[in-house]
Amino acid sequence: TTIELSEAVTWAAGSEIVISTTSYELHETEKRTIASISGTTITLTEALEFEHLSTEATISDGTKFQMRSEVGLLTRNVRIVGNDYAEIADEQFGGRVLVGAFEQDDVEYVGFARFSNVEFAVAGQDGWYDNFDPRYALAFMDTGDSVDADGAANAEE
């Protein structure tokens, strides 16, 4: 019921994590809940069902490479959750966040948003494919060029 990470993390007990497969079977990717963390050792609330290997190999020129599972945090600080209802499987009409621009009284207002550590659930709206109104879980419309900070915290605007 424990896994060893290559570096320490700041995750909390009770958080949900994902452990990727190390085989060719995608269904061997597993979700588990953290019971406790001590240094680089995570204790899980229940045992893993599948084997997740970790090894280091050296090729003939002396180059070493590591082969192991990826472990990711699924629990997020902010959750944006659409309304779940009986017909959602048929209608596929979930919540969405729209950041856009509009003009009122000759003043143009341009939206701005930066998202980090956010989970979207029951979100997005299937069947709407118009460029002028995309129905993604998160859509930026007419806000100009965007900057990809590549996940960097506190990146320049």
How would you explain this protein's 3D organization?
3% of the residues lie in helices and 35% in strands. It has 157 residues and is an all-beta fold. The chain is elongated, with a radius of gyration of 21 Å. The mean pLDDT is 84.
Task: Describe the protein's topology.
Elements: E1 2-4, E2 16-19, E3 30-38, E4 41-44, E5 54-58, E6 64-68, E7 71-73, E8 78-81, H1 88-91, E9 97-99, E10 101-104, E11 107-110, E12 118-121, E13 138-140
Parallel strand pairs: 8-12, 9-13
Antiparallel strand pairs: 1-4, 2-3, 2-7, 3-4, 5-6, 10-11
Question: What overall form do the CA principal axes indicate?
Answer: elongated
Which class of secondary structure composition applies to the elements?
A: mainly beta
Q: Give the SSE order as H and E letters.
A: EEEEEEEEHEEEEE
Gap from first CA to last CA? 42 Å
Helix content: under 10%
The portion of residues forming beta strands comes to 35-45%
Number of helices: 1
In terms of per-residue confidence, which ranges show pLDDT below 50 for 5 or more consecutive residues? none
What value does the average pLDDT take? 84
Arrangement of strands in the largest sheet: 1-4-3-2-7
Largest sheet: 5 strands, antiparallel
Q: How many extended strands? A: 13
